[in-house]
User: Fold these one by one.
Assistant:
Number 1:
Amino acid sequence: MPDAHNIIENFIDGKYQAPVNNNYLDNIEPATGLIYGQIPNSDVADVEQAVTAAQQALPAWRALDLEQRADYLIAIAQEIENQLESLALAEATDNGKPVALARMVDIPRAASNFKFFAHACSQFASESHAIANSAINYTLRQPVGIVGCISPWNLPLYLFTWKIAPALAAGNCVIAKPSEVTPKTAAMLGAICQKVGLPNGVLNILHGSGASTGSAICNHPKISAISFTGGSATGAAIATQLAPKFKKLSLELGGKNPALIFDDCNFENTVAEVFRASFANQGQICLCASRLYIQRGIYEKFKTALIAKAQALLPQDPLLNDTKMGAIVSKDHLEKVLGYIDLAKQEGGTILAGGEQVHLSGRCQQGYFLQPTIIEGLSNNASCNQQEIFGPVITLQVFDTDEQALALANESQYGLAATIWTQNINRAHQLAEQVNTGIVWINCWLLRDLRTPFGGMNHSGVGREGGLEAMRFFTEPKNVCIKYSAT
Ligand SMILES: NC(=O)C1=CN([C@@H]2O[C@H](COP(=O)(O)OP(=O)(O)OC[C@H]3O[C@@H](n4cnc5c(N)ncnc54)[C@H](O)[C@@H]3O)[C@@H](O)[C@H]2O)C=CC1
Ligand SMILES: O=C(O)/C=C/C=C(\O)C(=O)O
């Protein structure tokens, strides 16, 4: 558990412990730009200890009655709810997101992840296939064993638990690594597991960089499956490394998500929701809309409304209760996003709103703040329309016909999430069928039902999370065929 000096330790075999190599990384608060803690930079030796603990815990955990396993997950969810305030504060401090957002979305969703999979494991049925008069097949879905869960910094506890909960529910033991940029709530989860009496070794939480800890987890021969969320380049590197090792791999990667906005949309609602889809969490959600295609009849009016909203959304200290726009997660990331804005100018774009770093006063004077940024005038193949920026930056383009909108949306290497804004339900269905993304929202964004398949195609990932898809990923199907004699 983080101590008074904010030194975080690994959680292995039910206990907090220092990394074997005694190496630590600084943890920086994005709102202040100051170091406020340290985390282990764990390596193969720590992973080895975690795997040993998981191996010892596995037989009892996988043999546990489903109801008892579910009870542990429910107890974790309840404890997350009990600690809502301290977890939300930790998340906002660590990540720079508005504390109100962490309180309303991130932490409640982390609790929901455990509750959802506590129930999902009791609903997860296996198949049977009869061969008339001669045999019956039934499929066992057995835990994979020891699995690795690696998550990013944008929705720290939300995405960490989105992987851990189904992995545990399916009867696996877990070695999990949060992003080194946002380790704090993951570290607090260890104490929650202790408090509810989760058996030692069932969940092990290691901290450190991708190069050291992440790659040691991916490469450990006893870890049979890896569930990863993060950048597409990292996903590609992991897939390359793991291909000859034949591990199960789920990749939830980046997006460059189109919003198709038609003349006949419900204007007020669409402006509000598309704005939220663009800038929620400082635009740092893989599902955020980043390419806005607006039909000609409402283009100017829509643009004017978006600019007014962007100019009114002022970044503030994330720890203030009324903050709606917090800090960018790190200096490196701020520089990356600003680099894209410069590139947009070089490629002929016009900045309609934002585009500049914001310097606050007081405790946040060295923080990483950026205005919501709106760009127009770029071609569809410009860098800002093709590469994931992962920040509060959107581009606007005009279209005339449904066919044009679809062609523009599909001109992308990514395929994560599309939104369609129209009151013509036939058009919406037709476009939803043809757009190349794993998720389509019609007249809404990030309306989540945890039972649905979640993930993308092409450079946005391989496989799906959520609901029974996650239960399938974290189990091995084994078919058993019984021959009988027909009398
Ligand atoms: N869900 C998404 O779509 C996300 C996309 N990104 C994109 O990726 C870019 C880079 O951001 P990063 O924080 O560097 O994301 P990343 O993809 O490097 O990090 C995600 C997680 O993977 C781990 N990791 C990194 N290298 C690894 C390796 N070789 N083996 C195993 N684990 C490894 C990291 O420590 C972290 O826990 C961002 O600028 C953004 O464009 C970042 C975070 C989430
Ligand atoms: O499951 C959700 O609701 C959201 C998931 C978001 C990501 O995977 C992401 O931003 O990386």
Number 2:
Amino acid sequence: MAAILTVRDLRKRYPKVVAVDGVSFEVEEGICFSLLGPNGAGKSTTVEMLEGILPPSAGEIRFRGRPLDATYRERIGIQFQNTALQDFLTVRENLRFFRALYRHGADIDELIEVCRLREFLDRDTRKLSGGQRQRLLLAIALVNDPELLFLDEPTTGLDPQARRNFWELVRSIKARGKTIVLTTHYMEEAYLLSDDIAIMDHGRIIARGSPQQLLSEHFDDSVLELPVSAVAGKSLALPLLQRGEWVEIITADVGAAVRSLLAADVPLDRLRIRPRTLEDLFLQLTGSELRT
Ligand SMILES: Nc1ncnc2c1ncn2[C@@H]1O[C@H](COP(=O)(O)OP(=O)(O)OP(=O)(O)O)[C@@H](O)[C@H]1O
């Protein structure tokens, strides 16, 4: 598959901080590529350079093998966290307004179907729920029928159901051949949607791969979880990691760990065994909990 974006040694320096410190990667056409990282890692700065909004201090970005030019903005779509929707206009009127900014673009009726806007088409945009608003912002990002779509923390603030609905939408857009660049603070979202992930910290990429590759390259162990109360007062040879009301035991030998828990008389009725997740990897690589 050909690269739609090629990024070489991209840098952004501000007077007091190097926000992006030499990142290189390719985004293959038709995939969902995600940038993850703790606050201040340089994700937004990187994405704004990819969007052509912010000039790099050094390095290069190519779209389909060519430097970004005046046509680039017509060929990409950006879902901003806070696009200025036209107040006092309905959803339908907003769509028409943004569609009119482009000579060529998507069919409005098709967008209404794809983004499932039909049931609130005539509603004033100030009266939309969080999920409805995000669907409209997504439709607006798609009005010019872009080849490449940027989604910047698109589900922040949505309830779990609205978030799941949005994921379905993103999948259906990808199935229509769009390439997606996603930034998110939700590891589950990154895991479920991404084909390729770059984890950034301090302006650099510190890990890269598909979700499965990242997990299998970094981990060969599992996590046993028990309530704190189950291990309280027990003398255990296993290292315990406390996380809220639960303790975690990380082990490559689940059988041996369970045997030593039994030997120490630890009640196992609430024992949970889980594989490693992107959240674990993120914590291991960056030392930071994710902002939620
Ligand atoms: N316009 C600016 N002027 C000066 N410093 C900036 C500017 N924009 C970003 N920075 C700094 O660059 C670094 C990277 O910021 P950036 O917003 O790209 O990180 P991020 O990974 O997107 O973080 P978040 O998850 O909080 O959005 C930070 O130290 C930030 O303070």
